[in-house]
Amino acid sequence: MVTPSTPLRRAHHPAQQADRRRRIMETARGLLAETPYERLAMARIAQQADIAKGTVYLYFPTKEALFVALLGEELEDCLRALDSALNQLQAPATPERIARTFTQAIAARPLLRKLIGLLHVVLEQNIDETAARAFKQRLYAGLAPCATTLERLLPACAPGDGFRLMLNAHILTVGWQHAADPAPVIRTVQADPALSVFAVDFATQFEHTFTAVLRGWTPGGPNDG
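Predicted structure:
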């Protein structure tokens, strides 16, 4: 993390601009790991990045645009690792092996899960069409290799099923992340043994439910025949 001092002057050379953008994103990544999103102001990001607040807005017009860009990077990293791990499985692969591979890739990235939990209810609410389109195109490019690999691993998959399975994994990640990372007051309530049934572990629940989803794409499942 950069030690605050006098904010740097505006960068003009493309390499300087790329470095400035990287500095902003890395600072935001570090701060989000230790600060709730709703308490993280652009002014603080600018200060920690040693960049004037107005300059930050030249790169990211809104706070949401900044964190959507950060989520794009986190997703790309996760999906590359996931596709590599899936390609180490022998076809046909069992739903259990595939679900475990997904779980290991996603559960190991708490910042990714935190951002995914914010995506639909917060981040996408305050970005323009250009940013939204760029994010969706980036997401599609990352999902496509994993979708193709899934269709190879699951013989019952029809063309397009791999992508639908990836969307299922995404929605399960959103849902279980919300349940596994509730507001502090809910954590307090769930500490009551009589209400502890509401406390869930992300990895356990994601793996269980995604296994069930995958079974629907195996011979004898709902999509067979």
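Summary: Residues 1-8, 220-225 have pLDDT under 50 and may be disordered.
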